[in-house]
Amino acid sequence: MSNLSTLKPYFLKATEEAAIASAKWRGKGDRKAADAAAVKAMRKVFDDVPFDGKVAIGEGERDEAPMLYIGEQLGNEINNPNVPKVDIAVDPLECTNHCAHDLPDAISVLAAAPKGSLMGAPDTYMNKLCGNKALKGHVSLTQSVSENLSATAQALNKDVHDLQVIVLDRDRHQDLIADIHSAGANTVLIKDGDVAGGLRAVEGEVDLLYGIGAAPEGVITATAVKALDGFFEGQLHFYDAEFEQRASQMLGDDIHKIWSADELCTSQDAFFVASGICSGWLPGVKFHDNKAIVSSRVIFGETGESKLITNEYDL
């Protein structure tokens, strides 16, 4: 049994509760405490969900943070053949540093799909290229930066000099940033938050998301991009031989494969939900009169429908 329809309110509640818990640490300078609060709140919700869930790919191993770990069983009906069996890709607090310093785009986010539908891998890195559906068949990680920018401009009927490319502001991207500027395009540098960055590209607020970020966020983003009929490619990237070895054990010869959104999430019966913590792509949690007001974006894989939902919680 795999239909997710009965579970979607629980998944929304999981990110909402995680967002509220971490928002209480917003601006206090302690990213690990904020992360731990989000993980604890999300896990508490999952403990009461009537499903047989498993974390296919999650956050935490790279920076020894609190985490919902890969392979962790979720739900209170594990091994029950009559309940949905579900893969989860999750980051209870995406942009821990942004939450700690009350900067934009901290969110609590997850993607869910029937068991076996989401790519599972160690918490490593992924090279990503993402944009709207007009780019399908025109851009690829197999091409050079200049080739991709030229193709993007042609597909979007723009001049290369008008292109806006979101890139994580990291030392590893010095060459990428230089190549983008050399081609004449513009970079939009972000400190963290490439899930929101990818969806901005799909929805046309910018033209591309380009570069290396975390693999869990890649799978999460791909699930939303697939539902929105956008373009996404990802290829695992390793800075540590241990993670490469683990990935090889999990994926075999596919560790160097370039994955499309349809391959990272193989089911149409998928669900994406993100709840805002610090205002940016989504409104952040608002605290007022002992209440918490949370805004979330939900995207339905089977229909491509995207909704902004706001709920109020008594504290």
Description:
A hairpin with a 2-residue loop joins strand 12 (286-288) and strand 13. The strands form two sheets. Strands 1, 2, 3, 4, 11, 12, 13 and 14 form an eight-stranded mixed beta sheet that branches. Strands 7-6-8-5-9-10 form a six-stranded mixed beta sheet, with helices on both faces. It has helices at 8-23, 31-46, 96-100, 145-156, 174-183, 194-202, 215-227, 241-251, 261-264, and strands at residues 52-58, 73-74, 85-94, 107-114, 125-131, 164-168, 186-190, 208-214, 231-237, 258-260, 271-276, 286-288, 291-300, 306-314. Helix 1 runs antiparallel to helix 2 (31-46) and helix 4 (145-156) crosses helix 5. The chain is 30% helix and 28% strand. With 315 residues, the protein is an alpha+beta fold.
Strand count, sense and barrel status of the largest sheet are: 8 strands, mixed
Q: C-alpha Rg, in Å?
A: 19 Å
Strand percent estimate: 25-35%
In the predicted model, the low-confidence regions spanning at least 5 consecutive residues are: 61-65
Average residue pLDDT: 93
Number of helices: 9
3D shape: globular
The chain-level structural class is alpha+beta
Distance between the termini: 35 Å
- H/E element order: HHEEEHEEHEHEHEHEHEHEEEE
- In total, the number of strands is 14
The helix content is 25-40%
Primary descriptors:
315 residues; alpha+beta; 8-stranded mixed beta sheet
Brief summary of the model shown:
With about 325 residues, the protein is an alpha+beta fold. It is built from 9 helices and 14 strands.
Sequence-ordered SSE layout with sheet pairings:
Blueprint: H1 8-23, H2 31-46, E1 52-58, E2 73-74, E3 85-94, H3 96-100, E4 107-114, E5 125-131, H4 145-156, E6 164-168, H5 174-183, E7 186-190, H6 194-202, E8 208-214, H7 215-227, E9 231-237, H8 241-251, E10 258-260, H9 261-264, E11 271-276, E12 286-288, E13 291-300, E14 306-314
Helix pairs in contact: 1-2, 4-5, 6-7
